[in-house]
From TrEMBL:
GO terms for cellular component: membrane. InterPro entries: DUF3533, MNNG_permease-like. The chain crosses the membrane at residues 20-43, 226-246, 267-290, 302-323, 330-350, 387-408. Pfam families: DUF3533 (PF12051). This is DUF3533 domain-containing protein. Residues 29-398 form the DUF3533 domain. It comes from Gloeophyllum trabeum (strain ATCC 11539 / FP-39264 / Madison 617). Keywords: Membrane, Transmembrane, Transmembrane helix. PANTHER family: NITROSOGUANIDINE RESISTANCE PROTEIN SNG1.
Length: 438
């Protein structure tokens, strides 16, 4: 013992060295296999998202019905139809009896991603400003674009806001040129006097306001709705490893308990453990003043805590189930795909991803993120559905843990029966376990 150098030529040590290289090479191969099979999922979710923009829907609602409304409608309907463009469509104003407020409510209710509203009497207000040479005229009151950043801040910042504002800026420039030409050629107004008294009427007859009705105004929320979920999964995994060590390495309960008792222990113990852990995880966000009261008042924090508890259970019990099959040596090769498959559908809208990512609607991360956005930013409320997905994953894990543990116990009993009596120091114990199971 402790007497060899690494390149010692002793036959006995050479065998150990060869075994070491075999394990390292095999491990490297498995890591490479994991890289090539799993990382493309996440890379693919972020690769060329612009080619999926046609799956993002936008509305044009013309309450003006005149010159400005026609210009806006024409500009947006000519900027659609390709895969790299938002799918714009004109929506009848009859759907919105209460005017723009109903349009804003539809955006919050996720009927569309963005809605461009030409406000009522926009053209008439411009014409009156020309007639009265009104220096207080504000062209930004003509058009309002409604969107919610908190629904998906990445999509809002990368696509929705830049594309919408780009089209509206083009409308503003083109309309200003056409309107100035119209005034100068018609002779219906003294352009010189108008330029002196009300320059904004000529320079910017039409502009817009970008109404971010649900702003992502809590930067620390990024640690709650995505990055923190990775930490939550890792914590759940650590809890599974602690339970495994306590059950099999330290106490030996896996060979002392009946099958029924062992299964109940594996189902109940992790969930009980997650309860206080999820509380302290949630308290970190509360300490950094994440506003949990916007949607549900003071109950918001409790709902978030329960969500964290159930998501830890959904994520951790899956690790618990796979630990039975893969063991301590290979469980990391489940953890990595489990993280990747969840993160891949949480960064950009699933609607804007290739069809293979539709599984994301049933992914724990996606649903936790959706619920967190509702609690913190008061976005569309589907918290019941989001909890339901966590319950479904917990149910699946209950079934798989039961099945896998049953198979593992059968395999262990078979191994113990096949061992010679003089080597089977636990044969009496195994027999007792078998009889009690029967």
């Amino acid at each position: 013992m402790f007497s060899y150098s690494f390149f010692d030529k002793s036959p006995s040590f050479a065998k150990s060295r060869a075994l070491y290289f075999k394990v390292v090479a095999g491990g490297a191969f498995l890591i490479i296999l994991t890289i090539m099979s799993m990382l493309p999922i996440y890379w693919g979710a972020l690769w060329k998202p612009s080619v999926q923009l046609h799956k993002i829907h936008g509305w044009i609602v013309d309450f003006d019905g005149d010159m400005i409304g026609q210009a806006v409608t024409q500009a947006f309907t000519s900027a659609t139809g390709q895969n790299t463009q938002i799918s714009w469509r004109v929506v009848d104003t009859a759907r919105f009896p209460n005017g723009p407020s109903d349009v804003a409510s539809s955006v919050v209710d996720e009927k569309c991603w963005v809605a461009v509203v030409v406000n009522a009497n926009a053209t008439r207000n411009l014409q009156q400003a020309v007639s009265s040479q009104d220096g207080s005229y504000n062209g930004t009151h003509a058009i309002t674009a409604y969107a919610e950043e908190a629904r998906n801040e990445n999509a809002y910042r990368a696509f929705i806001s830049p594309i919408t504002q780009g089209i509206l800026q083009q409308v503003s420039i083109r309309f200003a040129l056409q309107f100035a030409h119209q005034l100068s050629s018609s002779g219906s107004a003294n352009v010189t006097a108008l330029a002196s008294a009300a320059p904004s009427v000529l320079v910017q007859p039409v502009s817009f306001t970008m109404a971010n009705i649900r702003p992502f105004d809590v930067p620390v929320a990024q640690a709650v709705d995505l990055v923190g979920l990775i930490y939550l999964l890792i914590l759940s995994f650590i809890a599974s490893m602690i339970n495994f060590a306590a059950r099999e390495t330290v106490s030996g309960l896996d060979r002392l308990l009946t099958l029924r008792s062992l299964i109940l222990l594996r189902l109940i113990s992790p969930i009980v453990m997650y309860f206080p852990v999820s509380l302290f995880y949630s308290l970190v966000s509360l300490a950094f003043q994440v506003p949990f009261t916007r949607a549900f008042g003071h109950a918001g924090f409790f709902i978030y805590w329960m969500l964290s508890w159930m998501s830890m259970s959904a994520l951790g019990l899956a690790c618990e189930a796979m630990l039975t099959i893969l063991g301590q040596r290979f469980i990391a090769f489940f953890l990595f795909p489990w993280i990747i498959s969840n993160v891949s559908v949480s960064s950009l809208p699933i609607e804007a991803l290739p069809g293979i990512f539709r599984y994301g609607y049933a992914a724990p991360f996606y649903n936790v993120s959706r619920a967190v956005r509702t609690i913190v930013f008061n976005t569309k409320n589907e918290v019941g559905l989001n909890f339901g997905v966590q319950f479904a994953w917990i149910g699946v894990s209950f079934v798989t843990i039961t099945l896998f543990q049953y198979l593992a116990r059968r395999r262990l009993e078979k191994q113990l029966r096949n061992m010679p009596d003089e080597q089977n120091v636990e044969s009496g114990e195994a027999s007792e376990v078998k009889q009690r199971n029967v």
